[in-house]
Structures are given as C-alpha cells and as structure tokens.
Amino acid sequence: MTVATQSTTMPTAEQHGFRPHSDGPIVPVQTRSERFRSTAVADFAPVTGREHEWKYSPVAAFADLTSGELDGARLEVTSTDAAGVALSWIPREDERIGTAGLPEDRAAANAWSSFGEALLVAVTGEEAKTVTVTRSGLGSAPRAAHTVIEAAPNSRALVVLRGTGDARLAENVEIVVGEGANLTVVSLQEWTDESVHLASHFARIARDAKLKHIVVSLGGKVVRVNPSTHLAEQGGDVEALGLYFSDAGQHLEQQVFVHHDAPHTRSRVTYKGALQGDGARSVWIGDVLIGNAATGTDSYEQNRNLVLTDGTRADSIPNLEIETGDIEGAGHASATGRFDDEQLFYLQARGIPEDEARRLVVRGFLAEVVQQIGDAELEERLMSALEAELQGS
Question: Which InterPro entries does this one have (predicted)?
Fold first, then answer.
C-alpha cells in the first residue's frame, strides 16, 4: 500500500511547502502541516543532511536505514499478559494502517515500504491495565517495523513499547485513540551502546479522548524518536512527555509535532534531558500548530536540558503557529543550563557532600517526568537506570 498526500513522483520544492516570493526563489516550509508525506521511499530524495528534518542528525551513521534495503520480517516480540489487551500480526493491506499519519521523511518511508506485517496491539475494556511489549534480539542488520496501537472507545490502558539489545531499526508506530479512551504509551529505548533506532510515532485522538505519550531514551548510539499527534476531534487531550540522558558520543533526538485541528483541545509538551561526557548530544524540536478551526485551544510546550560536563551540546527549538485568535492560551519555553548553584549550596550547607548533592539535583530534575508514567514498578526501575547513568556505569 502506497499513499502520498501530494504526488508519487520525486518531490519538488513546491511539494515540500516551499513557495517563491519577493525575497528569493525558495523560502522555508510555510506551515508545519504542509510538509510532503508519502508511504513510498522512492518519493523522497536521498538524505544529505542539509534537509530541514535532518540538519541536526548524524546522517552518515544511519545511511543504511534511510536508503538501504531493510528486512521487514516479523520482529522478535514478547509481551506481558493483561486482560483487554490482545497482540496479533496484521497484513499491510489492513484498513487500520495509515489512519493515524503518514511518513514525512525518508527513514519513515523506507520502513513503511519495507515491512511485511504490522504488530497490532488492540486495547479494549474500561478497566485500567498495563502491558509491556518488548522487542529484543534484533541483531545488527538494518530492519523495518510497523506497530499499530488501537484503543477502543472508552478503554483505558498503559502500553510500554520497550527496545533492548542490539538493533539497527527504522520503524513507524501508529496510535489510534478512540472516543472517550484514556491511553498512555511509553516508548522506552534501552538499546546497547552501538544500536541505532529511527522511529516516527503518529497519533490520532478522537472526541474527548486522552493520550499520554512518553518517550524515554537511555540506550543506543543514535536514537531519534519523532512523535506527531493529531487532535482531530473536539475535546481531545495529549500530554507529550520525554526523558533522555545523553552520554559521551551519544546522539538522542526528538522532533515533536502537535496539531490542534478541532475546537477545545488541549496539549502539554514537557521534555527534559541531561547530558554528560565529551560529544554527548541532544536535539529537541517542538512544533505546535493551532489550526483555524481549533477555537478554544489550550497549549503549552517546554524543553529543559541540564548540562553536567563540558563537551556536550543541546539543541532546543520550540515553534508555535496560530491560525485563529480565539484560543484559551498558548506558549512555549526552552532552557539549557548547568547546575543551580543555589540548590547545591543549600544541600552542601546541610552536610551533604558535593557529589551526593549533584546526584540529588539531577534526580529531582528528571523525576518530574518519570513520576507521570503511572506505573510504580517501571518508575522505580527507571530511577535506578538514571542513577546508573549518573555514576557512569
């Protein structure tokens, strides 16, 4: 199945939203929603690193995922049991595939063009439940994957999508939240040090439904998880949360897009990260678009980075587009800095050694996101993993 929103030929400047005007022949994309989208990798030009969606990424490190042949066979998947959550494999032709969104870059399109079957995680029932889906043993060969998480109307669940072991993976994850449903999805990256993971998440939220989407990136050499949320119907609500800890030589990237496309929708975006070690890198780009039909919108996005050592780099770029004046509120914030000297002084003045004081400050900084997951066991395990990151083990 191939779907393109504009054309199935090689994209032109016009297809990417570029329009001539008096300042010159080409200008950047006018509106975030105008970006070219297609399920066919051939519709995208080869990646050079100069494209708007790739200019912060180490594209040479994953050229095999953007241009090479990918193994689209079933991944090795294990899952915990939970009443009301069923896993199955569905064919490419299934009508649910493509309902949440379409690829906007070549890696996502390559994965979409390559997968054989999609993993369906179907959620039903109004009782709260938790299920963990683990992908492991993927090896070092480039692979493709496609996952559909479908929450039936008025259902409730927490779904953890976890990656461990070695991987060179390009994937798409579609999240369809039915009317009145309340769904939490945690994307947990705990790959080995040399792994590469490029993921695009697409979510569609129906009337009066709520999605809490949490990205936790700890392991992997290059991890790029880009969540895109479409608040398609009145009363939709999304909390997009992220947590990352970048070590020496590690590149962790998130490009977040929230599209308010209906009246009285709400979004909160909060991503927090820490960086330590030479060459540690993080990239966060947050796009919020409030469409002309999205009256009464309430939106806010923020990104905070804590720099622990010299030799690190954090790029943080919030963007906000508003096409209607009738909104409840909208804003964005970004900050990158070192330890708060006053906090350290306060703790040391009470007899706490400097190393322990630094650990407590970082722990408190990152715990804000961890504590919103809603699963005590997972929260405790992640805090222990962050402790290990701080100690460099």
Answer: Fe-S_cluster_assembly_SufBD (IPR055346), SUF_FeS_clus_asmbl_SufBD_core (IPR000825), SUF_FeS_clus_asmbl_SufBD_sf (IPR037284), SUF_FeS_clus_asmbl_SufD (IPR011542)
Strand order in the sheet with 313-322: 85-91, 117-123, 142-151, 168-177, 196-205, 222-231, 251-260, 281-290, 313-322
- Higher pLDDT: 237 or 340? It is 237
Query: pLDDT confidence of 252, banded at 50, 70, 90?
Result: very high
Reported as a pLDDT band with limits 50, 70 and 90, residue 22 is very low
Cα separation, 174 vs 369, in Å, equals 23
Phi/psi of residue 369, each to 5°? -80, -45
The whole-angstrom separation of Cα 46 and Cα 106 is 8
pLDDT at 302 over 80: yes
Q: For 364, phi and psi rounded to 5 degrees? A: -65, -35
What pLDDT, on the 0 to 100 scale, is given for residue 2? 63
Predicted TM-score (pTM) of this structure: 0.91
User: Closest Cα partner for 168 from 108, 105, 223?
Assistant: 223
The pLDDT assigned to 16 comes to: 43
- What is the pLDDT averaged over residues 242-251? 97
Which one is predicted more confidently, 17 or 363?
363
Query: In this structure, what token pair is assigned to residue 5?
Result: 């929103």
Question: What is d(CA 293, CA 265) in angstroms, rounded to the nearest whole number?
Answer: 11
> Domain boundaries in the chain?
32-338, 339-393
CA atoms within 13 A on the CB side of 312: 27
Give the whole-angstrom CA distance, residue 389 versus residue 393.
6
CA angle 265, 266, 269 (to 5 degrees): 145
Question: How many angstroms separate the Cα of 380 from the Cα of each of 217, 237, 372?
Answer: 16, 27, 12
Say how far apart CA 226 and CA 224 lie, in whole Å.
6
Measured distance CA(236)–CA(147) in Å, rounded: 22
